[in-house]
Amino acid sequence: DSRLARLRARIGGGLGASLLAIFSRGALSQDDWDELEETLLLADVGASATDDILAGLQARLRAEPDGDPRTMLRAVLIETIDPTLDRSLRLAEPGAGKYEPIVVVGVNGVGKTTTVGKIARMLVAEGHAVVLAAADTFRAAAADQLETWGARVGVPVVRSDREGADPASVAFEGADRARTDGADVLLVDTAGRLQNKAGLMDELGKLVRVVTKVKEPVEVLLVLDATTGQNGLAQARVFAEVAQVTGIVLTKLDGTAKGGIVVAVQRELGVPVKLIGLGEGADDLAPFDVEQFVDGLLG
Ligand code: GDP
Description:
Layout: H1 2-10, H2 16-23, H3 30-42, H4 47-63, H5 69-81, E1 100-105, H6 112-125, E2 130-135, H7 140-153, E3 157-158, H8 167-181, E4 185-190, H9 197-214, E5 219-225, H10 229-242, E6 247-251, H11 261-269, E7 273-277, E8 285-287, H12 290-298
Parallel strand pairs: 1-4, 1-5, 2-3, 2-4, 5-6, 6-7
Antiparallel strand pairs: 7-8
The structure holds guanosine-5'-diphosphate.
């Protein structure tokens, strides 16, 4: 399928070449195990997940010594990421006319505004009427960028013309607009200044509370940049403390050999990865499919 091919091509490097070398030498020596461990760590799978994955592979090989280790590793990776989690956005069918808020959070530069635009595009394609709210009021450029996305995707954008306006008031106005338009989804872009944890907590906590007061968000999506590795994981923990994060969007998986961060992120946070960013274009967002992803990683 073309999406799988695209994913394979875009998860730059993947683990394919290293694994092929390791698994082509017959029975695994200690050196091979070491190399496998190093390969997983370099892909940002994280130390504890790597230990578990290697233990899982060893157990399978003990039970079935003639089995194909690559197939077994595939199964262990799929199991570790967890194919049973619900990864869909928790939205009602389009046309109900009772808008549902989705709040998108994350640090500046991770691809948050781009992701909001891409999600809007995806939801519009599914038949949802969408309103965007530019609640990142600290940078006028952020609202301009969102407006560009709104025009591209064909959805209204609510913003403040005043830099430094209260983000919560923009969210309120967005809610008003969504209500009067009979929209299905209010997509709220937020500020991502992580200058200090307390400041972020205050701002983001307040915004989420305000949006929640108007209407409980169906999703709080945390956007993480796959290329920032364990640092991104530390950011994710901070956000998870402030907001009830319901899903992760992992961006910039194209052109990184660090795709293993998916395993680490989900395991550490206990929140499902729901969407992945595979490029800068409007259509470069895909639902996260565990098997496809693992095949891309191993490909
Ligand atoms: P924000 O500050 O978090 O809102 O980040 P932006 O949406 O402005 O994105 C920062 C940069 O990352 C821009 O140049 C985007 O085009 C780029 N970007 C966003 N998502 C992706 C992705 O999935 N892949 C790639 N390669 N670039 C991305």
